[in-house]
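so i finally got all the pieces together for this one. its two components total, 644 residues if u count the protein bits. some of the lines might not be protein, just check the labels. i wanna see the whole assembly predicted at once instead of chain by chain like last time, that was a mess tbh
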Amino acid sequence: MKISIVGLGLIGGSIAQGLKSKHQITGFDPDKNTQDQATKSGINIASDLNTCVKDAELVIVAAPTTQSEEILRELKKINFAAIVADICSVKAPLLIAAQGLNYVGTHPMAGSNEAGFSSANKDLFIDAPWAVSVVNETNKEALAAVINVICELGGFVVPVDPHDHDESVVLSSHLAHVVASAYAKSVGESEFAQLAQLLAGGSFRDLTRVTTSPAERTAEIVWPNRKSLSRVVENLGENLAKLQNLLDQGSQADIEKFLASASSLRTISDATLANVKNKQGNKVVSKIDNLVSDFLKYSKSRVIASDFSITNSEVSYLVNEI
Amino acid sequence: MKISIVGLGLIGGSIAQGLKSKHQITGFDPDKNTQDQATKSGINIASDLNTCVKDAELVIVAAPTTQSEEILRELKKINFAAIVADICSVKAPLLIAAQGLNYVGTHPMAGSNEAGFSSANKDLFIDAPWAVSVVNETNKEALAAVINVICELGGFVVPVDPHDHDESVVLSSHLAHVVASAYAKSVGESEFAQLAQLLAGGSFRDLTRVTTSPAERTAEIVWPNRKSLSRVVENLGENLAKLQNLLDQGSQADIEKFLASASSLRTISDATLANVKNKQGNKVVSKIDNLVSDFLKYSKSRVIASDFSITNSEVSYLVNEI
């Protein structure tokens, strides 16, 4: 397949590395250094957006959110007719920007505290959940092509409604980043910060890892979701206030209860992902004509889909419900 | 050396496993199942505390805080004269319980979300910071013996004042645990919790890992420090409120500034530990007579010490200041 990738940072670069042995890849990135690095690693680089997407059967837009919206608008201007996908961490605003295109919004739940093409690697998406946004207008061939690429990269497919996706990543990703930073700030402000840094054990290391992500990138990612993020930050503040009250007025048993009530979230997530990795799940065999309507149903019932086999007439895969 | 280990959970068990090839180890644990497991793995088990500590040159108390305080009082009752150490996550209360004993308080910054002797392993402490509490009354031979054991287990020594230690682990460990739980609670309370669990990427995984630790153990660990913990939880709540204000009223650049201000904490901690692992640092050669007074100074200037060589007259080691 002729695939064009617009934006060759960590995500776009990793997609290019992962697909180049199977597809005819053309990349574009405005950064000269990135162009040189990508060329050196054997990726064909176009000089501008129009040249990059010419003749492409699938265009993957892998730029920051604001630039991705602009690129989608550029593609509309030239009446681009082939399939367009993106990888942005918000999906509802992108859907609006993509109106009129043959578009499928996606979001890989993989990354690194590193950034740029130099950190890209073809294995970045192995066993990673990858959100695929579906709406009534989604085209079945476009959806199938995007699922194929995700599977080739080693990812698992999570069908999502774009609005539900945006609310969910506020919890699973954006809140995690800002809470980690608030934790690090509070530690840093203490007169005992230096000794705490020396006494860094597993809990400190886990809580602070994401604070080393580039602040510019994280701010860019959370900004479009700031309203929802503000609301969940407030909720977290209320939970911390409850905890403080238990520390001041409650018993050791109360603290234990508070901690125990929080532990199932990760356990359930791990167990579901383990099933998917071990190729366990309910096998679905369906007509390709039903792909979009099936995915629309899944986008409300919270499943992760894997092990796809897609032909012109039929599609089979495993689903795990959470 | 004849070393007795009282309490054979994850920490005590791992110490026993790590020292059994070099020392004559006797263990005691009230749990019958633990006794059987430890015996099977080649550790000599005593039937009670008194039998366990009889003839010991060093006793390491590796029980939960409340039990450890009781064990120290038991040892005082029998006028136990050899060296006594503990591994509790608070040091000031233990110092009081140990008054009259030849005592050195310690706290290894290593652990796991698992618990019990079955999870113990001799490599648990490799490259782990290990707090060693020093006060005017600390005996130099006792301090040297404890340092030796920590080095044999692969750990690095962080000399601490017991009160400073307690304030610092509230930040580096206890706050991290309760914040992770509050984060998981807030995610779990949302109507989008299930989708968030499916879209679990690196940030979600990092933030929730410690929530799978046994709630009973974490509650037991944080409880003695609840006053300090309440204070830092409040400070974190204030930082979250500031962040919320920036999300509501500020700009993307404000969010970026907030995130950037938090990133150095982990970077500095990593860089210091990397120096220690690579055997870089300032070499100190000193008389063994100065060991306690040198450590008292370090306990205020925030150093991590490694690569010890201790004889009857001299001690040499590397120090890295943060």
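The first helix of chain B runs from residue 10 to 19.
The radius of gyration of chain B is 21 Å.
anyway lmk what u think
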